[in-house]
Amino acid sequence: MHATDLVHYRVRPAGTLTEISTHHDPARNELVAIRPPLARTVIWAALGELQDVTRFMDQRPDRALLIPSAPDHDLAELLHHAGAAAIWPVDRHGFARTQLPNCDEHH
Question: N or C: which end of the chain has fewer CB within 10 A?
């Protein structure tokens, strides 16, 4: 469990009209996408957003998705393969998370 203040992080890639935004945990150097629904297309979009924003940061951050409940096996496997952790609430003040894969595992 880790309590932190997330910082809203926005970037506008050159030549685009829209910003990409997510949250950053500076204590862990981790980008966190917050996604209440667990629909597969929402998860894919969040992973793409995290990957996109990562390339604009000087120090490559870890990536995580804050989801409403513990991930099922398939979602945990997808996130592991994508190099992202899942974070979910376990009670009013605490959170649990999956472990990030080693860099060697997914490259």
Answer: C
